[in-house]
Specification:
It is a single chain. This protein folds into 2 domains: 75 residues; 169 residues, no CATH class. It has 3 helices and 8 strands. The strands form 2 sheets. Strands 5-4-3-2-1-8 form a 6-stranded antiparallel beta sheet. It has a two-stranded parallel ribbon with strand order 6-7. A hairpin with a 4-residue loop joins strand 4 and strand 5. The radius of gyration is 33 Å and the shape is elongated.
Length: 251
Amino acid sequence: MSEGTGLGTGPAAEKAAMAIATAGPSLAARLFRYAIVLLIVCGASGASVGWVYAVANPRIAKLKEQALRESLSTAFPGKDLVFQDASPAGDGQPRWTVRDASGAVTGACAIGKARGYAGDIEVLVGVSLDGSIRGIRIMASQETPGLGEKIREVEAKTSLTDIVLGRKPARSAEPDIPWFLKQYIGKRPGDLNLTKGKGPGPDRIDAITGATISSRAVTEAVRQAAESAMGAIRESPAAGSGTGGVSPKGA
């Protein structure tokens, strides 16, 4: 037996040595080819992802801007308005001043957030120069369906008679506002006192039955947003100055 290979001598040993010698380069070649193929596949996948992102990103940004315009128009309805970013530096909640066609500030919008029953409730609120609330939109909530999610519930415009007669309700140009949120319209931050079972009033908000936590969270978020919007009005620059804004018409 040879001490160098430990394979012995003779024809069998020669065949084994030849098999090892030929298998080595062949295996290395196969591994190299696999590596090249894998590199090509990874490169093609990365290029495809980059192309999809480059194509989709502008469309996504456009859809987000459109959704923001619609939300701002709900929070502060009106014609020929421009919403100008007035968010504070740092991690402050977003807010916008509202300007008319002449560039004069007519109000502001801001986002407020408070903890509800199942998670944070985020609202967008518009206020006039006197601090009264013009409109509200729920931006995010995860409350319990049938209870806390009633903060989004819109009153049915179709009566039983309409259903029987097959009549369709007349379309309204005004956005549908949830019945619970209607209580906040026209009130100032100091008027947002949550009560239970007393009904809505000029200085109180009637909580949703069985959803007091959600009602309290909305009230706190609306108060926070309204106060932030008033801060944007106080800090707003003179008419015609500042950066570009968001127009409801997308102009």
